[in-house]
Amino acid sequence: xxWIDFARPHTVEEAVGLLTERGDRARPLAGGxxxxxxxxxxxxDPDHVVDIKKIPELNELSVCSDGGLTMGAAVPxxxxxxxxxxxxxxPAVVDAASIIGGTQxxxxxxxGGNLCNAVPSADTIPAMIALGACANxxxxxxxxxxxxxxxxxxxxxxxxxPGELLVSISFPAPAANSGARYQRFIPxxxxxxxxxxxGAGVTLNDGCFExxxxxxxxxxxxxxxxxxxxxxxxxxxxxDENIAKAGEIARDAAKPITDxxxxxxxxxxxxxxxxxxxxxxxxxRARGGQVDAH
Amino acid sequence: xxxxxxVQTTINGEMVEFLTEPRQSLLExxxxxxxxxxxxEGCNDGNxxxxxxxxxxxxxxxxxxxxxxxDGACIDTIEGMATPEGLHPLQVSFLENAAxxxxxxTPGFLISSKALLExxxxxxxxEIRWWLANNLCRCTGYDKIVxxxxxxxxxxxxxxx
Lengths: 294, 161
Ligand SMILES: Cc1cc2nc3c(=O)[nH]c(=O)nc-3n(C[C@H](O)[C@H](O)[C@H](O)COP(=O)(O)OP(=O)(O)OC[C@H]3O[C@@H](n4cnc5c(N)ncnc54)[C@H](O)[C@@H]3O)c2cc1C
Ligand code: FES
Ligand code: FES
Fold this sequence. Notes:
The complex is a heterodimer of chains A (294) and B (161).
Chain A: E1 5-7, H1 12-22, E2 26-29, H2 35-41, E3 48-51, H3 56-59, E4 61-63, E5 69-72, H4 77-81, H5 84-89, H6 91-97, H7 103-106, H8 111-117, H9 124-130, E6 134-139, E7 142-147, E8 152-154, E9 157-158, E10 165-171, E11 178-185, E12 196-205, E13 208-217, E14 224-225, H10 227-233, H11 240-253, H12 264-286
Chain B: E1 5-11, E2 14-20, H1 26-33, E3 52-55, E4 58-61, E5 74-76, H2 89-96, H3 106-119, H4 125-131, H5 143-160
Parallel strand pairs in B: 1-5
Antiparallel strand pairs in B: 1-2, 3-4, 3-5
Helix pairs in contact in B: 2-5
Bound molecules: flavin-adenine dinucleotide and FE2/S2 (inorganic) cluster (2 copies).
């Protein structure tokens, strides 16, 4: 690995200042489970690594008075799934946090790093889209908020401009009669990369869908937000026939590639099957039921 | 002009100072600077767990931590596991259950298993396998490792009782 400089700012302003000054030559370091691998393999070639883990805002994990969740961009997965409030109110967040790598990776890996790294198979992103979360960004020209579905712009590309830092992720308070779920399909039990991942968030009203947010991983250059599923299902009865339609829409929306993990046909088929499963699980949770952990 | 960084940390309960280049991993510092060669380098990319150490109460892959990040941290490595009184019950169980062959994965498995038993003294087989998924072994087929952890849990609970 070539020489790098290292800084450990204690405030957002200081971090934004460093990132602005060094431009493309600087990279934020959260858990390092993507960045340190990339530094070693030459995937990223910065001169300056800015460790953001000492900044209080990036370490916050709290359910606010309005019921929403604020998750600092550098909070590692183990803190997320061990948090009692998150576990009870945002089980879909726990679904994603508990399958990133193994125990050691979860000791360091953050949702912020997973989002900023912006690979198509990233496991946290469909869960965040299903929950309607947004990214709070600080930069040299002030702060802004971007919906997670608009954050990734290409493979390993995101909306962050020069000097911008992802500070935290805000999740709205769960609506009454709502539930969400994230699941991925992998041929092993753990420690693998999604062939397909599906996140779904549903809100129910008297046996009907009020809204359905479905997002797919690993089937396009960026995580897909399939709004057509909401267009089809909103106001319709919760039944197998309607959930089957959602599966078909997901299958048609997916634009996967063929690679060593699966063919286009296989991935499209999985989108159908997984979307139905995940919507069913989200409905179970919306009705107060439990679903299997993984 | 690049300079090395000064790092002050606690390793196996003792205060340790070292100089490191920011590009060096904690694993490199442990092995090459501090001569603590118990943590092994297998993959150097977070998959095999041979480099596992405990950092501030959490297990991490030391190949994916920069040495500079250890500043102010508390790190436990395999070198601190046995005491002058003897081996840790996990070490005894690994030996008695033949949970190692070449041994390169063993320090990582021991550090990971110790952290598991500290937070879950009586894990199920499924919990053990799930917790240890980030540790790879090319020799044993895992079964003897899982059995050794269950055996150590029993021993430790018997000791407590
Ligand atoms: C063995 C192994 C298994 C893995 N398994 C999975 C898996 O199952 N599923 C999965 O999705 N991923 C997996 N990953 C990838 C990785 O662990 C995740 O993407 C993780 O969430 C990254 O988080 P991090 O905190 O480590 O990010 P880092 O590596 O610190 O950062 C990732 C990227 O985001 C940038 N960045 C980080 N924080 C910010 C910020 N606040 N603002 C702006 N930019 C920022 C960094 O500069 C870097 O480019 C695995 C990795 C390894 C090594
Ligand atoms: S050497 Fe660190 S995980 Fe393999
Ligand atoms: S004993 Fe040889 S790798 Fe595990």
